Amino acid sequence: MKGLSELLPGRVSTQPEDLACYGFDASGLEAAPSAVVWPRDVKDVSTIMSYAFANDTPVVPRGAGTGMTGGSVPLKGAIILSLEKMNRILEIDEENFTVLVEPGVINGRLQRELERHGLFYPPDPASMNFCTIGGNVAENSGGPRAVKYGVTKDYVLGLEAVLPDGRIITTGVKTAKGVVGYDLTRLLVGSEGTLAVVTKIRLRVLPLPEEVITLLAIFEDSAESGAAVKAILGRGIVPRTLEFMDGGAISAVEQYRPVGFPMDAGAMLLIELDGHPAAITKDAERISEICKGLKGEVTMAEDEAARERIWEARRAISPALYHLMPAKINEDIVVPRSRVPDMLGILRGLSEETGIMIINFGHAGDGNIHVNLMVDRNNKEEYEKARDLVARIFGKTLELGGTISGEHGVGLTKSDYISMEVAPAELEMMRRIKAAFDPKNILNPGKIFPAGA
Fold first, then answer.
1. CA 298, CA 287: separation in Å to the nearest integer?
2. DSSP-based three-state secondary structure for 118
3. What pLDDT does 451 receive?
4. What residue numbers bound the domain in which 117 lies?
5. What are the start-end ranges of the E strands in 94-204?
6. Residue 337: inside a domain, yes or no?
7. Which of 27, 89, 162, 416 sits most deeply, having the most CB atoms within 10 A of its CB?
């Protein structure tokens, strides 16, 4: 990488410790990059991609490495292009409710800064205190508040990005409306770093809600919690979050970071409402009645400190499960909201049939269930059995009208399954789009499409 080091002195490393630190993500997969490079602005990114294009060198853009499907794992000895130093909040436009940021800005940091200005950015992945906005854009991340507010793509107004050959493009608009030409912004959001390297992001933001009410509903059985979700939404109540944890998830959190959840609970709903105090108080009362009618015990967070403790526990589920089983398999299926109880029943039946423990949690309000198969990847027989079970779970998900990935993308871990959901004609169109952006296949190669595709 001598040529690249000369172009960007002090920003390129081939040291073994750096290669080790940047060769994996939260999927548990890893591979050694040939180098790590830290650009500071769009010109640096353009320089890197121009060099890579001229030398047929693969490049993998990387945020904070919190992705769950291997999207930032460097295949083929790729260069890791780490965007962590491009971490400035460039503009907060309070009059027009937009913010302009670089891709390395941490989601939680942006949230806190906007709140100081009375503003609100809804997408809130569980990893919000670590993940970057650039990574969120690459994966079209969601989060608990998606049930009411939507996901990342609903807030991205425009992008600055660098193409694989080093050219810089700008997409989208600063305004609320804009329909000139193809929507390249929407195309790049969720493309998992396979089409271009995003260097600036303009986001739509909202006024900060007046008040927030947080409820916890504990149930003896997951079927009752699923029925509660269906009833709440069926009554026309749209909470800003409607989170689900089954008994296994509750137990794991209590062992990892105790907060006082009952260890013998079958399931729990974390429900949050925001808006005008009188309106959300009425909705909270209606929700309490629904849950109590299904034998649920309902409590309300007394203050902000109590509310934050509950959310810390919710965000601790993934690390708690990894603590129990570091090599587990994690999937994030989505079914229509009305089919959540059906899917939970199917998962319970598959667990009993196969003897593989399945722990579930997620965003019940939008049908997004994080399915965790508690197996050891290092046990070949057990792992193969679990892989067969994953295919069955995906099949049942699609039968219910769902999708095999809600917010984690495809990356490496789901590429073998993409044809279960995407028909050949659509898959071929996706390949042609990839080839149009990246004719040399140097930008995050080997991701999304099945091996050999």
1. 9
2. coil
3. 74
4. 89-207
5. 98-101, 119-120, 156-162, 168-172, 197-204
6. yes
7. 162
